[in-house]
## 1
Amino acid sequence: MAPALLILLGAAAILRADGTPDDVSLLPPVNFTIKVTGLAQVLLSWKPNPDQEGRGVQLGYHLRVHTPQDDDFELKYTGRRYEAALHRGFSASVRTILWERRPSPASRWVSAELSALPGSPGTSAVNLTCATNTAAGGHPDSRPYRVSLRCAWRAGEEAPADTQYFLYYRYGSRTEACREYGQDALKRNVACWFPATSIDGKGQDALAVRVSGSSPRAAIRPYDRLFALHEIDQVNPPGNVTAEMQGTRLSVRWEKPVSAFPGHCWDYEVKIYSRRRDYVQVENTTANKFNTTVSDTSRYCVVVRAAVSPTCRQQGLWSAWSQPVGTGQDEQKPWTEWLLIPLTASLCAAFVCSLSRRTGHVCTKLFPPVPGPKSDIGDLVATVNYEKGGSGETESEVISYVDEEPEVLEDLVF
Ligand SMILES: *[C@@H]1O[C@H](CO)[C@@H](O)[C@H](O)[C@H]1NC(C)=O
Ligand SMILES: *[C@@H]1O[C@H](CO)[C@@H](O)[C@H](O)[C@H]1NC(C)=O
C-alpha cells in the first residue's frame, strides 16, 4: 500500500515539475496577414495575442498553408516566407501552441486568404513548360557559366484572338521579364527565351514563372507555376567522346558536360554497339572513362550520356546521348571501309538507331546534322534496316531518323 502511494505522489510531483500548467488557455494569434512579396511568393505574419498569459511557458505557432493540400509548420517565430502559385488564390491558418509540449494543446485557428488573381475563366495560358540549360559564360570576368531558360505554353481556350501573353520569372529575389518571344499563328506569344538568367547553375531554389496577359476584350487571368530546377534542367551531353581499340581492348574517354557542377558530381551511361547485331553493352560509371574487352574484331559505335548524381543534387534528367563515335575494323567488308569513311558518324548513328528498338525516338537527337547529299545517307540507313530482318515493326521509325527533327521549343519563331 505504502509504495503505491509513494509512486502516485511521485507522479504528481513530476507533472507539476515539467512546468506546463494544465490551466494555460491558449489564445489565437492576432493580426494574421498574407502579403505578396514577389512573384509566387508571400510573407505570412502574425502577432502573439496580447491577452495571452505567458507565466514562463514558451509559446509556439502551428502554421498550416493550404496549397490546396495542407503544408504544416511548427514555428517559434511570428512569420514565414512561402512560395506558391498564387493565381488560384492562397489561404493559410495559424494557431498558438506550447513550444515545449508535444503533442501540444492548441488555440483555435485564425485564417487569412488572398483571393484568386482576376481574369475570365479559360483565358489563362495552359500547358506551361520550361527548361534550363547551361552554357559556358561569354566573358572571362563574368560568371563561368550562364543558364538559359526556355518556356512554352498554349493560349487558353477562351482567350480572344487579340490576347497577348507576357512571361516573367523569379529566381531568389530577382525577377525578370521576357524579351524574346515566340508566337503562334494568331501572333500571340506562346514561347519565351532567356539566353542568360540569374538562375544559379547549381541552384536548389525553386524557379517561379508567371504568364500574365492582356486583351482589349477580356481580362486574362495570370498563371503561375513553380519548377524544381533538377526536374527541368536539360543537362548537356558529355564532351569530346573518343573511342579507341587496341587488340580486343576498347577504351572510351570523355569530358564532363558543360555545367557548373564539378567533375565528381556526375553519373554516366556508356552504350557500345557492335556492327554485329548481337552485341550491345550498357555500362554505368562515375568515372570519365570506360574500358572493356570485346570478343571479336568488328566496328563499334559508342555513345555516352550524363546526369547529375544524387550526391550533388536531387535526381534529375539524363542528358541527350553524345554524338556517336566509331572505332575498330570490320574484317568482313574491308572494301566498304574507305567508301564509308566520310559517313562514319552517320552510319554509326544508323547502327545505334537500328539496334535501339525501344528507345527509337532517342535517335532523332542522336543523329548529327547530315553531311553530304541526304538521299545517299537515306539509302544507307535503309540498307542497314533491311539487313535487320524479322523486326519489321521499327523500320519506319528508323528510316525517318534521317530527317532533322527540331526540338519542340525551337519549332516556334523567336
Ligand atoms: C493589430 O492591428 C491593429 C490595427 O492595425 C493595431 O492597432 C494593433 O496594435 C495590432 N495588434 C498587435 C498586437 O500588434
Ligand atoms: C494541357 O492542359 C490541359 C488543361 O490544363 C490539360 O487538360 C491537357 O492534358 C494538357 N495537355 C498536355 C499535352 O499536357
## 2
Amino acid sequence: MLKSLPISFILFISVILFLLFPSQVFSAHPKCHSQDKKVLLEIKAALNNPYHLASWNPDDDDCCTWYCLDCDLVTGRVIALTIFSGNISGQIPPAVGDLPYLQNLEFRKLTNLTGQIPSAITKLVNLRELTLSYTNLSGPIPSFLSQLKNLTYLDLSFNDLTGSIPPSLSELPNLDAIHLDRNQLTGSIPDSFGYWTGKTPEIFLSHNNLTGAVPASFGRFQSMIDLSRNKLEGDPSFLFGKNRTSWYVDLSRNLFEFDVSKIEFSDNLTHLDLNHNRIFGSLPKGLTQLNLEFYNVSYNRLCGQIPQGGELQSFDLYSYFHNRCLCGAPLPPCN
Ligand SMILES: *[C@@H]1O[C@H](CO)[C@@H](O)[C@H](O)[C@H]1NC(C)=O
Ligand SMILES: *[C@@H]1O[C@H](CO)[C@@H](O)[C@H](O)[C@H]1NC(C)=O
Ligand SMILES: *[C@@H]1O[C@H](CO)[C@@H](O)[C@H](O)[C@H]1NC(C)=O
Ligand SMILES: *[C@@H]1O[C@H](CO)[C@@H](O)[C@H](O)[C@H]1NC(C)=O
Ligand SMILES: *[C@@H]1O[C@H](CO)[C@@H](O)[C@H](O)[C@H]1NC(C)=O
Ligand SMILES: *[C@@H]1O[C@H](CO)[C@@H](O)[C@H](O)[C@H]1NC(C)=O
Ligand SMILES: *[C@@H]1O[C@H](CO)[C@@H](O)[C@H](O)[C@H]1NC(C)=O
Ligand SMILES: *[C@@H]1O[C@H](CO)[C@@H](O)[C@H](O)[C@H]1NC(C)=O
C-alpha cells in the first residue's frame, strides 16, 4: 500500500503529523508510569507540597519531566529521586519505598528534614546509591540497610544519628564507599568492618564519639580509612605494612598510643594524618621512601631526629610541632 504512494505524499503526511504532534514523533522517552506518578504525588503531599517540588504538577501526565528525578529512557520508570538544597520540612515519606525501580535516592542539604530512616527503604532492592546527608535525621543507623545488597554507595554523613554502628553493614557486598562521618555515633567499630562479604569499601567514620580499639580484624585492611576525631584508643599500627594498598589513613585526634619506630609503610601511602594522639618513638627512615602528599604527625609524643630526604622536608614545622623531642629540619637542629 505504502509502496504505491508517491514519496512526496508520504513526506507531506509526515510533516503534517510532526506539526500536529511534535512531542509524540520526537519524544526522547516514554511518559512516566502512572503508578510512579501517583507515588511521587504522595511523596509531595507528605512533605507538605513544598515550593521546591512545584514542577510536580498533577495535571502534567509526564512526570519524567519533573525536577529532582530521572526516568529510565526505555521503560519510563523513575530510577533516581534526588532532593537537594530545598526548603523542605518533615520526615522522609515511607512512600519512597514504593518507587520499585529506584537506583539512586538522595535527600541532601535539607536541615529541616527530621525523624528516622524509614524501613520502607528496604523495599528498594535495585538501589545502588543512598545519600541522606546534611539533614537533621536522628535515631540509629538501622541494621536493615544491610538488606540493600545492590548498594555501591552509602552516605549518611552530617546528620544527628546516634547509637552504635550495625555490624551487619559489612554484609553489603558491592560497596565502594561508606560515609558515617559527622554524626554522634558511639560504641566501638564493629569487628566485621575488617572482613567484608565483598570488596572492602572506603570507610569514613570521622567526627563521631566512637570508643575502644580498632578491631584486630583490620589486620588485613587494604582500603582508605578516616577514623579522625573520635575517642579511639590502643595500638592500630597493624593498619600499616609494606604490602598494604591503602593510600589514605587518617587517625588524627584520637587517643591512639603506639611506637611508630618499627612501622613499615607501604609505598602506596600518600595521605598520612596521625596528629593529636599519644604516639611515641622516633620517625622511621622508611618514611623518606614515600610519595607523601599529605602528612601530619604533630601533637604526639615523638622524639629524635626527623629522617632527612624524600618528601619529609617538603612539609613545614606545623606537620611536626608539639612533640616531646623531635628535632632536625624543618624543626630546629638536634643537639
Ligand atoms: C526550617 O524551618 C523553619 C521553621 O519553619 C524556617 O524558619 C526555616 O527557614 C527553614 N529552613 C530551611 C533551610 O528551610
Ligand atoms: C521555608 O518555608 C517556611 C514555611 O514554608 C518559611 O516560613 C521560611 O521562611 C522558608 N525558609 C526559607 C529559607 O526560605
Ligand atoms: C537542625 O540541626 C541544627 C544543627 O545541628 C540545629 O541548630 C537545628 O535546630 C535543627 N533543626 C531542626 C528543625 O531540628
Ligand atoms: C540488584 O539489581 C538487579 C537489577 O538492577 C536485580 O535484578 C537484583 O535482584 C538486585 N539484587 C538484589 C539482591 O535485590
Ligand atoms: C561526644 O560526647 C560529648 C560528651 O561526652 C559531647 O559533648 C559531644 O558533643 C559529642 N560529640 C559528638 C560529635 O557527638
Ligand atoms: C604481606 O606480606 C607478608 C610477608 O611479607 C605476608 O605474610 C602477608 O600475607 C602479606 N599480606 C598480604 C595482605 O598480602
Ligand atoms: C599499590 O596500588 C596499586 C594499585 O593502585 C597496586 O597495584 C599495587 O600492588 C600497590 N602496591 C602495594 C605495595 O601495595
Ligand atoms: C597538622 O595538624 C596541626 C594540629 O591540628 C595543625 O595545626 C597543622 O596546621 C596541621 N598541618 C597541616 C599541614 O595540615
